[in-house]
């Protein structure tokens, strides 16, 4: 309907034509009456008064009646099978103009009706929609924007759109759409809907001879009457679509009474009816309004909201129309008799078709629409039939004539059966049939759909023939066959009428013109009804270059309009209406507006000044786009390149955001040149994020602390104080200045606020807030509260680890004792170095020297954590460097600087500094050839423990232990593998399956501009620290032993606390006479759990580690791992790094892994009950199978299958843009059945998985010999696998096990147990390392603080 030529005059706005149809088809204009209309008088002719008020007819419209004018028909009431509908009475009002089912009533004189005659239920209440503003777009500041007619806006709500409490006052209906977009939503804009009027054809019943009559058993039925023909149309408001060969029920109405919602509807409530009653219609020509209040309608969508059985006139499909699976819920009639409904319980009545509802929030107009009601011949079959006739025309005929002739022949066959009573078989291979119609599978399908059966004739020749359906009412299927055949006749006739109209010149002399079924386009009719007619909303103002930009499609739809209907005024109205009705999504609406206007500017189009002013105006009111939001997060330091190195998402706590803002403000004071600009940017950033989050607390802090862009020097000079003055003097001077310069109080407060921020003076901040000097303010810190650690720069992982070490009592005491030894020269002999090893390898003097310094620094930190009164302690730079930089890297760095010997070793050193790697076994190691980049969440190996015997002279000759990986990966030598993470089966990035010799010093190469090289993860940092502790222990052990002692490792605090022993067996799949192929015992530091999918718990993850299928000697084998000895502290690492084989990059899995306060390791012990283990393994295998199937059904490329199928079906059902070949109702039904099947299968698998899980846990519920309790949880927050933020939770053991502490660098706070065990689904803050302590071991003493009160008590005694 676009007018590409603006100079071409537009047609007049269409009005409803006056028809003079057959008397049986004349419509009646509904009026409000006191009592129900009797069936006999239901279909009446319009009175003379009403007829005179009918507007002129539509331009070029066929002056015939159609389905849109057959609401109320005068029918033959003697037909007992048909039950008359009655007009539903509405509440009587003094004025109620309405449009019913496309038939508009004439409006009475409004001058006396409006105002003076207002109904009692509409006494002009104080309406928050109407009285909030004056109904027009407001001018803000000095900007001038074209006035746009729009009412119902609330200034307070729009300014505080982020505040949920402000939005709840008005209860807005949500986003809406304008009429032009509604037109597309109602039905495909490229498809024409037709009003269909039908009457019996001019044919005479066939009079059979006695001979012919005796040859058939079918009695001659009565031909369909005119009433029956008219009622073959599905509904008075059903319109035919030739593209779908189906019908669309489209019903619009202006009514002060809301439509009856379906019982099953549970969606949002409809717009405020009180407000809607004030206006009959929003569009031009509304006689009720002196001036137009709103530019146009603003519709809101309610899916499946209206029961078609409750509309006027009610609609239900006939039994023969329903799918066989729904026949169990058979309904009784198409049109309901409302005369007896009062005696029926409405809750027991089955629902009809569910219709979509569109309601204008500004007036009483609403519209209901159905999905396509399929025709008798499915679209797919009908399209195949037409394609065949066009591509293979009959000899001597054009494709058009061939198709028209074939359809005309089918219609003649149907008419012969219905009106002539013809029951003789039609031989399909005789010349007469072949010349007109031909025969094929497609033609057979068409006849099968309308009830004709293909069978052989009993004429001795066995010819194939079509046998007509039985139409006798005395036969069960007779009435249904008759109704279906009659509907097919109407549909085919309507399609042929449309086809003939489009090819009239070619078919004029070739085909007999049929007048029984007439069609008329209703596009302009419903366009006018909903306000979408080009006369109401002109088209073509948007330049063609902008209409073709697909990137703006979402923006146009977000604002609820189409690009073809663009005008500056309409775009402004669309934006303001969305902000009015959907204030909570103001960011999205403003982003769409800005995108459209900026695109106009980038395309060098003439951008209206009104739109540019509107954007400037909105920005002054605090509006921002999504890009602005991203920039705000970056300004506060979030993002990969930001100083925080943390992704910004919903999981980031408000406290963290506020602290980041405060840190930025503090840094800005040091920048005298750009400080003001930086503070302005930071303040704007916090305001934007506070708005986006809807945070009252962040707004409160922003208002209180946003300060000023005033420089520090200006602040001091304004008050007339120096930077050396104390707080008492500053407050005194401020009070004096306020008394002397009362008019400058705001500027003086601004200056004092700047000083308070720069000096971080809590006293000045309280004084500004309260107006009272609180004296010296000391932020109270509980004496028994753990102290935090200041971050040195991307060292949150180190802070977490150091705090964790401090909670371990034995480790804390060992560090204190080692520090005394470490301060003395070790004076170790070369034999001592050769005899004592760490992690199964020799250590160098450099490493021993470094470990001494490390222990001394760590002991100093521990002392401060115990005695310091400040809330947080700052670790030393040397401690951080010793923990994070290896000896090898340190040596290389010194070598690069000095170019000389960097070793501390003497000439008699027998062990040279060199690579700390251990030679791998000689067997072939299979691993994936894909190598991942560095990840701070790199996975651990299975053998994370120390291989203590690998350095023995014959270690490499030991062939009992082999390294295996998952099947299906090519061989690769150890030298080709990177030192840390590898990719294994399933796309997971996993630590190389190589025995790791205890806590060796990791190799770290390269720098990233960070303080200590690249960022690390907790596990890597732990390896380095434990290695240093063992080296320090080596000094004391060597002195105590006086030489070689093979039992030194057993006394190591690191080995005793953290290391356990496991046994690995590799057995062939399918069983074998040999108990195992290879068996090996080894130490472990961590137990790895792969976290790649949702819905599993800690036991499921461990089970996959202890029982797995691997590739061994080019064959699949079963690997079983069991625990021989458990440590006091059990560490379980959650391997979150996965590998995306499509993107070829690592990513972090955010899956939730359920764990509790305790864990029992009995099921994994070497000496566990064999029978229970066997049963457990069988159930676990079945459970894994169920979960794999659930994963396949739910983790498709885009979404779960059942949801994807359902949404695809919904999209195709309302597709209004492009007609897809092969799309018909049968395909849609199949898609819905597939979605139901997928959902049912998913539900069954989930139910079975839950049952298997219960059985599995029931086996081990009483086994608690190896019971552990949760003590610490390390959290990694961030979307990336390469960077993020660490913090950790620690349980307050042993005295308060229900209390937890959260260690987040310098901030330490008490939190609830629920926060630690919370379901993290949808969050980027996920557990990464779980720490459990053996029940009763008492190795964890979380809080170690010096009690000052004990000294005071001692002094008083």
UniProtKB/TrEMBL annotation:
<dbReference type="GO" id="GO:0016579">
    <property type="term" value="P:protein deubiquitination"/>
</dbReference>
<dbReference type="InterPro" id="IPR044635">
    <property type="entry name" value="UBP14-like"/>
</dbReference>
<dbReference type="InterPro" id="IPR001394">
    <property type="entry name" value="Peptidase_C19_UCH"/>
</dbReference>
<feature type="coiled-coil region">
    <location>
        <begin position="1228"/>
        <end position="1255"/>
    </location>
</feature>
<dbReference type="InterPro" id="IPR025305">
    <property type="entry name" value="UCH_repeat_domain"/>
</dbReference>
<dbReference type="Pfam" id="PF00443">
    <property type="entry name" value="UCH"/>
</dbReference>
<dbReference type="InterPro" id="IPR028889">
    <property type="entry name" value="USP"/>
</dbReference>
<feature type="region of interest" description="Disordered">
    <location>
        <begin position="196"/>
        <end position="231"/>
    </location>
</feature>
<dbReference type="InterPro" id="IPR018200">
    <property type="entry name" value="USP_CS"/>
</dbReference>
<dbReference type="GO" id="GO:0070628">
    <property type="term" value="F:proteasome binding"/>
</dbReference>
<keyword id="KW-0645">Protease</keyword>
<dbReference type="GO" id="GO:0004843">
    <property type="term" value="F:cysteine-type deubiquitinase activity"/>
</dbReference>
<dbReference type="GO" id="GO:0061136">
    <property type="term" value="P:regulation of proteasomal protein catabolic process"/>
</dbReference>
<feature type="region of interest" description="Disordered">
    <location>
        <begin position="1"/>
        <end position="67"/>
    </location>
</feature>
<dbReference type="InterPro" id="IPR038765">
    <property type="entry name" value="Papain-like_cys_pep_sf"/>
</dbReference>
<keyword id="KW-0378">Hydrolase</keyword>
<dbReference type="GO" id="GO:0043161">
    <property type="term" value="P:proteasome-mediated ubiquitin-dependent protein catabolic process"/>
</dbReference>
<keyword id="KW-0788">Thiol protease</keyword>
<feature type="region of interest" description="Disordered">
    <location>
        <begin position="886"/>
        <end position="909"/>
    </location>
</feature>
<dbReference type="Pfam" id="PF13446">
    <property type="entry name" value="RPT"/>
</dbReference>
<feature type="domain" description="USP">
    <location>
        <begin position="787"/>
        <end position="1335"/>
    </location>
</feature>
<keyword id="KW-0175">Coiled coil</keyword>
<protein>
    <recommendedName>
        <fullName>ubiquitinyl hydrolase 1</fullName>
        <ecNumber>3.4.19.12</ecNumber>
    </recommendedName>
</protein>
<keyword id="KW-0833">Ubl conjugation pathway</keyword>
<feature type="compositionally biased region" description="Polar residues">
    <location>
        <begin position="44"/>
        <end position="53"/>
    </location>
</feature>
